[in-house]
From TrEMBL:
Organism: Streptomyces nojiriensis
CDD domains reported in the protein's UniProt record: LDH_like_2
Residue stretches making up the D-isomer specific 2-hydroxyacid dehydrogenase catalytic domain: 8-326
Name under which the protein is recorded: Lactate dehydrogenase
Limits of the D-isomer specific 2-hydroxyacid dehydrogenase NAD-binding domain: 110-296
Length: 331
């Protein structure tokens, strides 16, 4: 059987081809799965999608009309999939329920350190042979307070690193993680965490209850010199409200690997185009903001696990099995 994979990067393609070698052929496309590209999938029973795919009801109906019966999404989040419509269509949906939490946790710390120690500005200067230190002063994280919103696997990994820095640990989640408590984390309500933390990092999934978890009111509760990091999902932050706070001179810095309107922008080369998104255009101009293109997961370890799970999801579908990765089971 030939499988069609959308949104495949150049680094990912040989890994996918090698993983499926000997079992199935795989056709890899750089384009993302959306309404305009869905017709390409006609005739493919199994389609694999990437994190920014549009799997709304309309796209799912187009895929089903073309003969697609199974979608193997190569990501953990599935807020982009209309699961109810998939069930109605009898379409099987699989995802990657787990991959290396260290990839995202370590990258979140990379963002925090980059913002705190002004590394982008410093490297830009030295390339111009400007070796002054003016404006590059940061702070020790040791002894300061970190607030972790979401203490699952990634939040726990982030907390372990914070513990290594010697930070005071505050957490917020619907369920306390015993491993984080053992590290010395104190669970508090969200408002207290926002008001008390020098560094705030987001590690919760994007669902209806967490959309704009960091809104204008939450931002106002943060210290003027707080650092905010988001390596989870862009929709957790009200970006327009964030821009307003930054314009007012608040927050020491912001590190973002995700953006709520990233679909159709992230993973693509837009360098020769006029930026139509005024909010994003304004956001990247702040000297204390670092924006990366949803790359926190992008390590050989994590991508390898994602691909191995995708192969297993395809095998489960063909065998009529379900697993922890199954969002909509086969009929």
């Amino acid at each position: 059987m030939e499988i069609l994979a959308f949104g495949v990067t150049a680094d990912e393609k040989p890994l996918l081809e090698q993983a499926f070698a000997g079992t199935h052929e795989i056709r890899c496309l750089e384009v993302f799965l959306e309404e305009d590209t869905a017709p390409i999938a006609a005739g493919y029973e199994i389609v694999s999608s990437s994190v920014n795919a549009d799997l709304s009801g309309r796209v799912l109906r187009m895929l089903a009309a073309g003969g697609t019966k199974m979608i193997a999404q190569r990501s953990t989040g599935f807020n982009n999939i209309d699961l109810d419509e998939a069930r109605r269509l009898g379409m099987t949906i699989g995802r990657v329920s787990y991959y290396s939490p260290y990839s995202v946790a370590e990258f979140a710390w990379a963002l925090a350190l980059t913002v705190n120690r002004r590394l982008v500005r410093a490297t830009t200067r030295t390339r111009d042979f400007d070796f002054r230190l003016n404006g590059l002063m940061g702070r020790d994280f040791h002894g300061r307070t970190v607030g972790v919103l979401g203490t699952g696997k990634i939040g726990e990994a982030f907390t372990r690193i914070a513990h290594g820095f010697g930070m005071r640990l505050l957490g917020w989640d619907v369920v306390q993680n015993p491993a984080c408590v053992e590290l010395g984390m104190t669970y508090v309500d969200k408002d207290e965490l926002l008001e008390s933390s020098d560094l705030i990092s987001l590690h919760v999934p994007l669902v209806d209850s967490t959309r704009h978890l960091i809104d204008a009111a939450a931002l106002r509760r943060m210290r003027d010199d707080a650092i905010l990091v988001n390596s989870s999902r862009g929709g957790l932050i009200d970006t327009e409200a964030l821009v307003d706070e930054l314009r007012a001179g608040r927050l020491e810095g912001v590190g973002l690997d995700v953006y709520e309107a990233e679909a159709g922008v992230f993973f693509l080369d837009k360098s020769l185009e006029t930026v139509a998104d005024d909010t994003l255009a304004r956001l990247v101009t702040f000297p204390n903001v670092v924006v990366t293109s949803h790359q926190a997961y992008y390590t050989t370890d994590a991508v390898g696990q994602i691909i191995d799970t995708t192969v297993a999801n395809v095998a489960d579908y063909l065998a009529g099995r379900r697993s922890e990765n199954t969002l909509v089971p086969p009929e």
